[in-house]
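Module 6 notes. Inverse folding takes a fixed backbone as the condition and produces residue identities as the prediction. Think of it as a translation problem where the source language is geometry and the target language is the twenty amino acids. Below is one complete input and output pair. Work through it position by position during the lab.
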């Protein structure tokens, strides 16, 4: 059914496919995570209120509250990514200057923008990792009639995490403050390791329930 939502999605995909640099991979990563969160919410909504699942209703109500918060935050992350990218491009576009002081000021602004452009996708990655955890609980407790959607949720969220990780890496590589960059990369590796295990486990659980 066509409507405002469909038009908004179509416009986003048109922008994504265009020659413009934003929205780009960062926005796509956030969308993947947001889709995962939305699917977690859907499974919860189709489980809550069902007599067969009364014992897990309180748990899934708590999951639903968290997944809806994450969906909103990941949707906002699309614009955050655009702003971070624009800031980096704006810094690189500053005049190089004719003296050491001007050159140092430009370099400082570029480095500050790169740090922000590293933190923004890292935050997106963290949000996606949280969705992965919620999908695990949803797969364990959710309505069996829609349990496959919990599997899609965890894969969507994990795809968003992996995608955001690439943006963290590409920006961290250009940061001169290696303590900052290496710290962010270490945080990222911890997220990736935990989420990979949870995603594989959750996907197997869903497959076993499907039969």
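Target side of the pair, the amino acids:
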């Amino acid at each position: 059914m066509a409507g405002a939502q469909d038009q908004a999605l179509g416009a986003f995909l048109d922008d994504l496919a265009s020659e413009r640099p934003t929205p780009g991979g960062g926005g796509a990563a956030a969308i993947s995570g947001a889709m995962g969160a939305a699917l977690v919410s859907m499974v919860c909504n189709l489980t809550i209120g069902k007599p067969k699942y009364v014992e897990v209703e309180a748990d899934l109500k708590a999951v639903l509250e968290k997944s809806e918060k994450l969906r909103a935050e990941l949707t906002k992350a699309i614009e955050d990514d655009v702003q971070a990218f624009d800031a980096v491009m704006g810094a690189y576009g500053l005049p190089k200057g004719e003296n050491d002081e001007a050159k140092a000021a430009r370099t400082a602004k570029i480095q500050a923008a790169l740090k922000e452009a590293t933190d923004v996708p890292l935050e997106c990655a963290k949000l996606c990792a949280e969705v992965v955890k919620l999908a695990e609980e949803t797969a364990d407790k959710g309505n069996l009639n829609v349990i496959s959607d919990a599997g899609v949720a965890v894969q969507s969220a994990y795809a968003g995490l992996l995608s955001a990780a690439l943006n963290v890496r590409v920006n961290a590589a250009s940061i001169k403050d290696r303590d900052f960059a290496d710290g962010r990369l270490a945080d990222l590796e911890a997220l990736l390791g935990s989420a990979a295990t949870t995603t594989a486990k959750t996907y197997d659980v869903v497959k076993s329930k499907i039969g």
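Reference fact for the lab report: The CA atoms of residues 111 and 202 lie 39 Å apart.
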